[in-house]
Specification:
Elements: H1 2-13, E1 22-27, E2 32-38, E3 49-52, H2 56-73, E4 77-82, H3 88-97, E5 101-105, H4 107-116
Parallel strand pairs: 1-4, 4-5
Antiparallel strand pairs: 1-2, 2-3
């Protein structure tokens, strides 16, 4: 069920039917986060990726998965993660250092948009 919420989160952020980039949505939590890569048609381009914040191999696995998806689809990725206290900061920094375009979303704003319309 959590993956459905993550998928709705990513699709709720992007208001276009088709776009020319891969979208990576990350559901951030204190110790473990979950990511999914969506193609330009909003269909999953990967299985769900478990990210253990304390494990560098886990963070690098995510980076490699996104880079592989970019290569396979010949598209750049945009990464969206929710602002969750301080838990998103190390993940954000790691992804920026890896060269990705990363956006932090305020869940209060996305939730209020969902309620309004």
């Amino acid at each position: 069920m959590k993956w459905m919420l993550l998928l709705k989160f990513v699709l709720g952020v992007i208001f276009i039917r088709y776009f020319d980039f891969l979208s990576v949505g990350i559901d951030v939590a204190s110790k473990v986060s979950w990511a999914v890569i969506l193609g330009p048609d909003h269909k999953p381009a990967s299985n769900f990726i478990r990210i253990d914040h304390s494990c560098l191999d886990s963070l690098n696995y995510l980076v490699n998965a996104v880079k592989k998806a970019e290569e396979v689809n010949s598209l750049k990725a945009k990464i969206f993660l929710e602002s969750t206290g301080i838990y998103h900061i190390p993940l954000f920094c790691h992804l920026k250092e890896a060269g990705f375009e990363v956006y932090i979303l305020n869940p209060l704003i996305t939730d209020s948009n969902k309620i309004k319309g």
